[in-house]
Each structure stands twice: as structure tokens, then as C-alpha cells.
Amino acid sequence: MKFGPLAGALFLSVALGIPYAEAAPGYATANVNLRAGPDTDYPSVGVIPDSDPIDVRGCLRDESWCDVVWAGNRGWVFSEYLAMDYRGDMRPLPDLGVAAFGIPVITFAAADYWNHYYVGRPWYAQRTRWFAYKPRPRPGWHAPPPGPRKAGWWRTGGYKSPTGMKPPPDRGWRPHKNDRHDTKRNDHKDPGDHGRHDDRKRP
């Protein structure tokens, strides 16, 4: 593992009064780990079941990871395993990009994020270690192209599905029936926005 003394030194700008976009609803398209930070080395908060609803609160600038709310939990998920409803068609989030859904570009402030969401969790006892951890770029992932995107652009250029994961579904995926969440789209309390900085340019 690679650790950096300055990792987690990014400070949240909530105190500056910057407004945040509403959560963008979507679904997990596979059984996927919800991580305590944007890297597979971070502890798993839990496994989001295939077709469970989530709310996306922001994504990294390269759209490799997104900060989501799931069943009252907060954490980070691979973006390509999130499906969003676009004009009645379920699309992988990176196909259209964060701007299409009003999702802000954010950065990860480990100390603030963990101190708000993970106090009392088993991994919180190791917080000093993780506050110093420097998240790695995702292998095989590259930043989105400028302008209009071609569906599946992220599958090119050496992309491989994460270890132990089946490839993300293509356009046209639909969530299957899930008894826990069928009747209520938002059955969890929104834990708010902490430990993330909105990178969108403001007038």
C-alpha cells in the first residue's frame, strides 16, 4: 500500500456556504462493494445488492468512483456499476457523465468524511492509517473524453472489470424486483454531505 502524509488534507468547503446538488437516484447493476474511500484498499462498508437503489452525491473528476448513499450508509462505488434513468432508458453513469444528471464533481477529504460517517464502525479505530492513505488511480480507467460521448467509451483503452466482478451490463439493463426497496425509493435517512468538496465552477 502507498501512503502519503498529505492524503486527506483536502478540506471541505461546506463552511463556505457552497450549495450542493440534489442526490441523483440510480441503481447498482451488480453486487458491488461500498467502500470507505475511492480505492479498493479502503474497508468495505457493505455489499450493495444488484438492483438496490442508491443516491449519487458526487463523483471524482475522472468519474472512476462515485460517493453514494445506500440504505442509510455512505461510501464509494465504481461508477460503471451505477445505472441512471435517462429518458426512460437505464444507462451506465459514465456513458453520459455527471453533468447529464446534475451530479457534482467532488474530491475526497478522508478525515472529515470518516469523522462524520464512520465513528463507531470497526475500521474507525484505524483512522490514522487511512487518513494518511493516498488513493491510487484505477488501473485501466481513463478520464472521460471532451464533448459528446459514445456509449461504452470507458470500455476501451485497456479497461478491465475490477477483480472478482462480472463486466458491467450494457445499455438497456433493468433492475430486477427487490422486496426491500420496491415500495419505497428513498427509505433511508440522508446522512448529508461531509468530507467531499464540490469542484464545479461557480459564477
Describe the structure.
This protein is mostly beta strands. The chain has one domain: SH3 Domains (SH3 type barrels, Roll), CATH 2.30.30. It has helices spanning 93-96, 110-117, 127-131, and strands spanning 24-28, 32-35, 44-48, 53-59, 65-70, 73-78, 82-86, 89-92, 106-108, 196-198. The strands form 3 sheets. It has a 6-stranded antiparallel beta sheet. A two-stranded antiparallel sheet has the order 2-3. The protein has a two-stranded antiparallel sheet with strand order 9-10. A hairpin with an 8-residue loop joins strand 2 and strand 3 (44-48). The N and C termini lie far apart (40 Å). The relative contact order is 0.24. Mean pLDDT is 83; it is low at 1-21, 181-190 and 198-203.
Give the topology, please.
Elements: E1 24-28, E2 32-35, E3 44-48, E4 53-59, E5 65-70, E6 73-78, E7 82-86, E8 89-92, H1 93-96, E9 106-108, H2 110-117, H3 127-131, E10 196-198
Antiparallel strand pairs: 1-4, 1-7, 2-3, 4-5, 5-6, 7-8, 9-10
- How many domains comprise the coordinates? 1
Mean pLDDT: 83
Helix content: under 10%
CATH superfamily descriptor: SH3 Domains
Sequence of strands across the biggest β-sheet: 6-5-4-1-7-8
What CATH architecture do you see?
Roll
Class inferred from helices and paired strands: mainly beta
Distance between the termini: 40 Å
- Rg over CA atoms, rounded to whole Å, is 16 Å
